[in-house]
Amino acid sequence: MREWEAEIRHRWSTVNRGPKTRWQDKADVVRRSTGAISDAAWLRQQFTADHDVMRDVQYALRMLRRRPVVSALAVTVLAIGIGGTVAVFSVVDTLLLRELPYREPDRIVTIWLTNREHPEEREGVAPGAFLDWHDRSKSFSHIAAAAPTSFDYLDGLEPETLVGASVTEGFFEALGVQPILGRLFVPHEYTVFPPSVVMIGHGTWQRMFGGDPEIIGRKAVFDGAPLEIVGVLPKWFHPTVLGRLRAEELWVPGTLTNPEFANRRTRYWGVAARLAPGVDIDDARAELSIISEQLGREYPNTLGAMTATVVAFRDHLAGPIRDPLRVLLGAVVLVLLLGCANVASLMLARASDRQREFAVRAAIGANRWRLIRQTLVESLVLSMLACVAGLVLARGAINAFVATAAATVPQLAELALDRRLAVFALATSALTAILVGLWPAIRISRSALRQGLTEGAVSTTGGPDRRRLVSVLVVSEVALALVILVTAGLLIRSFASLVSVDPGFAQSNIAVLQIFAYGQRYQTTEQRVAFFEQALERMRAVPGVEKVGIVTAMPFMPANINIQGGFRVEGRPAPPEREQPVTSLTVASPDYFPAMRIPLRQGRLFTDNDHAQGPLVAIINDLMADRFWPGSSPIDQRVTVNWQGRWRTMQVVGVVGRLRHDGLDSDPRPEVFIPFSQLPYGSMTFVVRTATDAASLIPTLKQRIWDVDPTLPMYETSTIEALVSQTLAPRRFITGLLGILAGLAFVLATIGIDGIVSFATAQRTREIGVRVVVGGSTRDILRLVFSEGAMRVGVGVLVGLAGSLAATRVVASLLYKISPTDPLTLVATTALLTVVALLACYWPARRATRVDPLVALRSD
Q1: What is the pLDDT of residues 341-371, one digit of tens each?
Q2: pLDDT range class, residue 314, cuts 50, 70, 90
Q3: 193 and 295 share one domain
Q4: Same domain assignment for residues 363 and 399
Q5: Is 290's pLDDT higher than 90?
Q6: Could you tell me where the DSSP H helices lie in 452-524?
Q7: What is the distance between the alpha carbons of residues 78 and 336, in angstroms, rounded to a whole number?
Q8: Which of 274, 304, 334 is the last residue of a domain?
Q9: In this structure, are 478 and 531 located in the same domain?
Q10: How far is CA 422 from the centre of its chain?
Q11: 35 and 135 co-located in one domain
Q12: What is the tens place of the pLDDT at every residue in 416-474?
């Protein structure tokens, strides 16, 4: 090194000694000096451990090429495990671990009303209840609400409805968000009605205004009124406090009106709050629990059965797949461990063929660490190759997650294979390499050093150690696979049970189109009636349409117009106002019931004779009939309902089946139907039964509505099948993935058990030959090998059942009408895995009976 430095100094001084120094000469010296770096690195490598490690890597690659089928199988098994782990961890990281972009996100909570008898079902918040919380609670520095609203926008290619929210003062401060352009609302803007300013979402800014950076201060016409755009919110801002599938696109300041102060019945607001300094979430829960008890005593009719539920903002954003994620992550880790067990058995089998090689290495001076390092490097190279393939699989899986679940959980749209996940993949691969290679490495090195070159062979798995190792691997494979199979089986049975639930109406070939007929053209009852009658007439004329009706509360619709009111039966003592029963009030046309195929239990449906000048009539569902007229008929009975502050007395003319409105797992609710002709309403959904595919007719049906009013946008258009499918999406997502993992675990366990038992049997070739020579029969050999495998499978089943019973406690809250210890699932999955595992033990045992004794006695 000193000679090299002296040579460079000499050349440099020579170049600078002349009267004129050319830059070319200096560049030549620099080139020669830098060119020597590689030589110096090579020299250094010859006298350090780097050289040995590189040789180990090169040798490992040669060994992989020597057995391409085995190597490809090992890489594939590990790639599936690593890729699945990375993909699922990406979801967990995005929803549960990654720092949220909000200011101090751990201080943000959402608050919901929950029925004490069904604490798992969160409901919206009644305005009056929010105001009570706002006035009485001391746990929050900011507490604010958002009310759902929408805006008609007519300047696009076709009329469209933009989903929005009207927020009370402090909403954005509670969430800790600032616009990327412009400003937040100022206090005096919360006192102006109708609002004059608006903030827009990032998507609206890009889609409708081309991302114009000068958008602030511009006025755009929404709902026929010019609103000044004062801010553009960040792309990631999707608080989902209103529980919608569609993200809010417009935000306006909200003003509270007198009716809202007293409304503790209709629950449609979303509430967000920021914890005050020094207050934690448990303190807030305790305070709101006390306030809920107070409100329950003050308003027993509306809030008596309700309590406030405080949810951490991160848990709220994770949505319905938060708890299933833990189950999914546990399952994919078990699959990874299963893959590690399989690859470990493959490496042991390969090591048995390399006994002489390791003995020679030990004989010529290789120490134990050197032999362990060689094996670990081989497993590390194998894992790194699997890591690359796993990242490719993870990327595909992440794209599939976004495509299938982003509509249900908006935060999933932010999934990406970034550096953090790449580092996680590398760490997982390194850990996998240790799990796969460490045990075989230790055993191989110990055996090689102990036995040396004895008869040209080294037994890597002889005696009790061999049997113990094989037993551990088989038991592990069976136990891990059984835990995954039982968990997946329970969720699959639960999902099948949920899908089979009767919602009370038909689902196929029904299109729904929701509109809000308000504004200048629909100020009077006559104007609304005329519009709907004309639209219904035009839609009936569409070829393929069988029935067309309209309704306010359309089941499974994101904007379900859930109107509730007090209820009493004429001729019975009226209960105190605070104890008055509440029912859902739904406006419907006569053809709504046949269009939905809702069964008629008693009486009749609405007819054209139920007009505005005729007697007021109503239809109730059978849940109300059973509750208020048990054992008798409600037909011709008179009931009085409170429709938005006005009491209306009607005669019951029919009883229909009960409907599930919010989901297949939700309970039906008492419901009173009122004819549209007697109570015209503007928020209606067209329900169209078709003879063919309903989705294909939606564009034509929309055009028929626009033939009547070309300025009226559709709030939502869909089919009932799609609406029901949306509610099942989170369960289907988790169940499908667990089903795939269970199938993969089943295949891996089968292949692994067969491979391990085959390897163990091959190691006993000499023993089997001796037994045959001394008179052992085929049946004896078969019983010997099979009984050992069957015993290991039996132990694995027992361990797996114990693990399954522990795992089912985690998934209990995810099951629908299925017990966590469901006997059918436990018996079926256990029997299936046991039979296949025993077959995997039988075939190696069967092959062992065909061993030629002479060949066996000559084997190593």
Answers
A1: 777 777 666 665 555 666 666 565 555 666 6
A2: confident
A3: yes
A4: yes
A5: yes
A6: 463-499
A7: 7
A8: 304
A9: no
A10: 21
A11: no
A12: 777 887 888 888 777 777 766 666 656 665 555 455 444 444 444 445 556 676 777 78
Alpha-carbon 287 to chain mean position: 32
Average of per-residue pLDDT across 851-859: 53
pLDDT band, residue 694 (cuts 50/70/90): very high
Whether the predicted pLDDT of 644 surpasses 90: no
Say how far apart CA 308 and CA 182 lie, in whole Å.
35
In a domain, 58, yes or no: no
Contacts of 508 (CB under 8 A, 6+ apart): 694, 720, 721
| CA gap 43, 39 in Å, rounded | 6
Q: Any idea which residue has 């609206």 for tokens?
A: 204
> Are 131 and 261 in a shared domain?
yes
- The verdict on 489 and 522 lying in the same domain is no
Separation between Cα atoms, residue 475 and residue 605, nearest integer Å: 64
Q: What pLDDT, on a 0 to 100 scale, did the predictor assign at position 460?
A: 41
Q: Are residues 475 and 327 in the same domain?
A: yes
For residue 557, is it left (φ>0), alpha (ψ between -120 and 50) or beta?
beta
Spatial contact of 680 and 528, defined as CB atoms under 8 Å apart:
yes
704 and 733 co-located in one domain: no
End-to-end CA distance of the chain: 53
Model confidence at 142: pLDDT above 80: yes
Residue 254 counted as domain residue = yes
Please indicate, yes or no, if residue 86 is contained in any of the structural domains: no
pTM more than 0.90: no
Boundaries of domain holding 207 = 118-304
Q: What is the rounded CA–CA span in Å between residue 854 and residue 772?
A: 10
For 402, other C-beta atoms within 10 Å of its C-beta total: 17
Considering the chain, what is the average pLDDT of its residues?
81
Report d(CA 520, CA 516) in Å as an integer. 12
What's the average model confidence in pLDDT over 475-499?
87
Q: Record the tokens describing residue 751, joined without a space.
A: 């292949």
**Residue 206: Cβ-neighbour burial (10 angstroms; 0-12, 13-18, 19+):** middle
DSSP for 63-128? HHHHSHHHHHHHHHHHHHHHHHHHHHHHHHIIIIISPPSSSSGGGEEEEEEEETT-TT-EE-B-HH
Domains of the chain: total: 4
Residue with tokens 């029935």: 547
- Torsion, Cα 118 122 128 132, to 10 degrees, reads 80
Residue 72 lies in a domain: no
Taking residues 663-669, report their average pLDDT: 87
